Amino acid sequence: MRILHVTYSLASDQGGPTMVTTRVAAAQAGLGHEVTILTRASKGKETELPAIEGSRRVRIERVAGKGGIAGKISKVLGNDVSPKLRELVAAHDVVHVHNIWDPILIHTVNEARRQKKPVVLSPHGILTRWALSEKRGKKALAMSLGWRRAIMNVSLMHALSSFEREELAAFGFQGPVVVVPNGVFLEEIDPLPAPGTFYQSHPELKGEPFVLFLSRLHPIKGLDILVDAFARVLKASGASSRLVIVGPDYGMETAVREQAAQLGISDRVHLTGPIFGRGKYDAMVDCACFCLPSGHEAFSVAIAEAMACRAAVVISPECHLPEAQEAGAGFVVERDASKLAAALEKILGDAAGAKAMGQRGRRLVEERFTWEKVAAALVNSYQSLM
Description:
Structural class: alpha/beta
Oligomer: single chain
Number of domains: 2
Number of helices: 17
CATH superfamily of the largest domain: Glycogen Phosphorylase B
CATH architecture of the largest domain: 3-Layer(aba) Sandwich
Helix content: 40-55%
Distance between the termini: 11 Å
Strand order of the largest sheet: 3-2-1-4-5-6-7
Order of helices and strands: EHEEHHEHEHHEHEHHEHEHEHEHEHEHHH
């Protein structure tokens, strides 16, 4: 099958959709399909294709935009991308669009419909009620200017969880929806880093067990709840553990530092900034547990990566990964500091139990959350449209 993925950017600082696009494309190419990615040229560093055999067969077409007002007008009208888009849609059997807010979505849907090619949309959680409430006025205006019509005209919607499928129904989409989660390439993670690698590069931890948070430092991620919970853990355990916070600052770093100071635990809370590449696996292997009390996740690849690294996990119901607790890989806990603290205490106080959780989490990823399984499921959904 000839598959065209279209995304607004492959820039490494653009988060999940860019990473997902490259991984799905590589996995589908690895299954023997002809795969192309169409994207706007990035000004900064681009997300790299994974180091697997399929990546060599992925073709990337980049469209360079113009600067200034003329460039913005060209982008809205699609003049920068339309010639290449027409050519590529004609050369492929199915078109898969990632994310929604760039005008490239509208132009792709319109071109695919003109050429009578099926078009699939992965909104990556952006059409949930919470996501649409952020900058509500601006998004409502965009919807009225053509975005809603384009979204409603896709052939198939790709949801990451049953929760996102329900949110798409609430949005008003009445077409077919396929639920396929994100995944990981175990080839990118294995062999796992040697235990102690993260401790060696962070001697300030003094070899003590630590809870790991790895995500954007954004209010929705629940960092304030986690810091409060961790202070309770320290009070109960006699200050024998630490909290390591990894990720880029999206407006929470100062507040977290101030909160830790007010609670008197600044010496136990470590903010490293973002860690890219395999360095994050060092932290996941050495952590006592991985914790993400997020208020909204369509599907967190970081949780899957942590389980692949055999870390026990403590996550919120809003992470929409009940399989973690069902498989015995960790706890799904309400976003309440006392309840979160109780779950963390159980794991920190039972190293053998935490290790067993980690082993079960690894098996869960192997069985259900790899990019190869994701790619195959998406290809099956494409074939249903032919």
